[in-house]
Design a protein that fits this description.
The protein has 239 residues and is an alpha+beta fold. The chain has five helices and eleven strands; from the N terminus they run ββααββαββαβββββα. The strands form two sheets. A six-stranded antiparallel beta sheet has the order 1-2-3-4-6-5, with helices on both faces. Helix 1 packs antiparallel against helix 2, helix 2 runs antiparallel to helix 3 and helix 4 crosses helix 5. Pfam families: HATPase_c_2.
Length: 239
């Protein structure tokens, strides 16, 4: 299953692929990442790094995820904190998280994470929801620098359109969200106790460390951060 096209990634979109529930998940993830990155103009060396890294993540997702659910592969681009391609593997198993450090490759609790960290610019994991259903789970991700040919011209995006797209992205993943706009085109989206302001210069919201700001082109990054924040809050407030 696929949503989005590789070309959509350059204009704020994403690709989401459903992976098999068997050991072929790693091979399928390598193939999908390579095909997507080739179309986006990445070099062969960078694609090879991504294939190795995503293979480790997909293998771990298959090992630890329920056999009744499909892992997912997500790919999008972000401009902050840097120009990066984000590659994530989602599974529904929240009881097992990757352990970074110098774990041996055969270590059940750190398998291959040292490889991913060595190849990627950044790595991480967080609570989230499926992009193809509304299933809750987690994702493990890594980033790589965008290619030199990446279109970096400033894109003019209407705040109202960006607001509508973000609202659709959140609701499509089962996140209750509401929105309103004023005559100036400024919109405010509300998710639980969080307000997200959408204006001509980007998305902004407040967290415990201060204001977070993302350009409107970073729709996927913004949606993922809000979903993760909501899921983390829900998880820690479970009875």
């Amino acid at each position: 299953m696929l949503t989005g096209r590789p070309a959509d990634i350059t204009v704020g979109g994403a690709c989401a692929f459903q992976l098999p529930r068997d050991p072929s998940a790693a091979s399928q993830a390598r193939t999908l990442v390579a095909a997507t990155m080739r179309e986006l103009g990445f070099t062969t060396d960078t694609i090879d790094d991504a294939k190795l890294a995503v293979s480790e993540l997909a293998t771990n997702a298959h090992t630890h995820a329920s056999s009744a659910t499909h892992p997912e592969l997500w790919i999008w681009a972000r401009t902050r904190p840097a120009l990066e391609l984000v590659v994530s593997v989602f599974d529904t198993h929240r009881d097992t998280w990757p352990v970074s450090g110098n774990a041996d490759l055969l270590d059940e609790h750190g398998k291959g994470l040292s490889i991913v960290a060595a190849l990627a610019t950044r790595t991480g994991s967080h609570f989230t929801r499926s992009r193809l259903t509304t299933t809750t789970g987690k994702c493990v991700w890594f980033t790589l620098p965008l290619p030199a040919c990446w279109p970096t011209a400033v894109r003019v995006i209407a705040p109202k359109l960006a607001s509508d797209n973000l609202l659709d992205a959140l609701r499509g993943r089962g996140i209750p969200a509401t929105g309103c706009s004023d005559d100036r085109g400024i919109s405010v989206l509300t998710v639980a106790t969080l307000n997200i302001w959408v204006g001509p210069t980007g998305f902004s919201w407040r967290d415990r460390r201060g204001y977070v700001r993302q350009p409107l082109i970073d729709l996927q990054e913004t949606a993922e951060r809000i979903v993760s924040r909501n899921e983390t809050r829900q998880f820690h407030h479970q009875p």
